[in-house]
Amino acid sequence: MNLPGHPDMNASFPLLVSVAVAATTLPLMAVAQSSEETVTLQSEGQDLVATLQLPEGNPAPVVLLLHGFTGTRDELVIPSTDEGVFERTADTLADNGYASLRIDFRGSGDSIADFTYESTTFEGQISDALAAIDYLEKLDSVDGDDLYVIGWSQGGVIAAAAAGRSGKPDALALWQAVGDLDASYGGMMGEETLAAGKAAASDHTLVATLSWGPEVSLNSAFFHGIEALDPMAEIAAYTGPLFVTQGTADTTVLPASADAYIAAHEGPEQLWTADMGHLFNVYSSTKTLDSMIADTLSFFDDHKD
Questions:
Q1: 17 Cβ contact list (under 8 Å, min separation 6)
Q2: Per-residue pLDDT for the chain (305 aa), expressed as one digit of tens each?
Q3: How far is the C-alpha of 161 from the C-alpha of 236, rounded, in Å?
Q4: Do the domain assignments include residue 97?
Q5: Of 94, 70, 103, which Cα lies nearest the Cα of 2?
Q6: Which domain holds residue 116?
Q7: Count of domains in the chain?
Q8: Are the beta carbons of 138 and 156 closer than 8 angstroms?
Q9: Are 235 and 27 in contact (CB under 8 A)?
């Protein structure tokens, strides 16, 4: 998520991480060279811009990274390292033998040739994620048969839906994934704005003032999607391995969302719990984020084909 002014930025959370299901910190491989390029794929006939990062060696297993509400493919910049959360994640993936594709959903970042953020919908982003999965399955430079997905925040609920509808990922990681849409979006933009958006006629634009300060214009279709999308039904359709993070200090996506995802899912799963806010404590240090990335990778390693 791209959240200038978000309350997590002013918080100083303890860095101790507790893991609900025992996880082993991943020993990182020696840093290897990786290549990175900007690619453009198609979603519903429109341009989707992404960064493809490849480790050295043979076609590697690949991870699709899905950003959050108002975010972009590199995600939130970490002050101490001047890199995006997903940039850091992609580098760690490459160091451990995984390729990655991080996309800008249509209307976000560089994916604006055919689309504006105002036109963003949940179903549109799900289509983007499915298009990216299809792209990776056909891409010769990666092992598209060994495919994983990570989604953060709104990207998490999109990842859950894409996994449930495609059945494709060999494992799925939901990082602080929105589970109760009314609670999260009502908290971010206010209950009155949420109600007005749901009641608005089709193709009506509303301006929402977010709880951390900025304004964002959204079509009523976004709000109608909040009513229509059922995250727990989406994840229930996915029976593959599921890794879910739970931040006990998160006020944007409440800890109950992680519990709900685990309860709705049938299959191998791990609930990873830490004393962190929605931004993984990156305004204090990268310790919590790095631990979460390492344990996500360990989970993927444990569930390879």
A1: 274, 275, 276, 287, 288, 291, 292
A2: 666 555 565 443 333 333 443 344 444 444 568 899 999 999 999 999 999 999 999 899 999 999 999 999 999 999 999 999 999 999 999 999 999 999 999 999 999 999 999 999 999 999 999 999 999 999 999 999 999 999 999 999 999 999 999 999 999 999 999 999 999 999 999 999 999 999 999 999 999 999 999 999 999 999 999 999 999 999 999 999 999 999 999 999 999 999 999 999 999 999 999 999 999 999 999 999 999 999 999 999 999 97
A3: 9
A4: yes
A5: 70
A6: 7-180+230-302
A7: 1
A8: no
A9: no
Find the CATH number of the domain harbouring 277.
3.40.50.1820
Alpha carbon distance 164, 77 (integer Å): 30
Tell me the C-alpha distance between 175 and 239, whole Å: 18
209 lies in some domain: no
Q: Within the chain, where are the H helices?
A: 85-95, 122-138, 154-166, 181-189, 191-199, 220-228, 231-236, 256-264, 287-302
| Beta pairing class for 46-55 and 99-103 | antiparallel
Task: Tell me, yes or no, whether 206 lies in a domain.
Answer: no
Question: Any bridge partners for residue 175, and if so which?
Answer: 152
Q: Is residue 14 part of a domain?
A: yes
∠ CA 196-116-137, nearest 5°, is 110
Which two three-digit tokens encode residue 221? 């279709």
**DSSP-assigned beta bridge partners for residue 208:** 216
What angle is formed at CA 87 by the lines to CA 66 and CA 81, rounded to 5 degrees? Answer: 135
Q: Are 164 and 134 in contact (CB under 8 A)?
A: no
pTM: 0.91
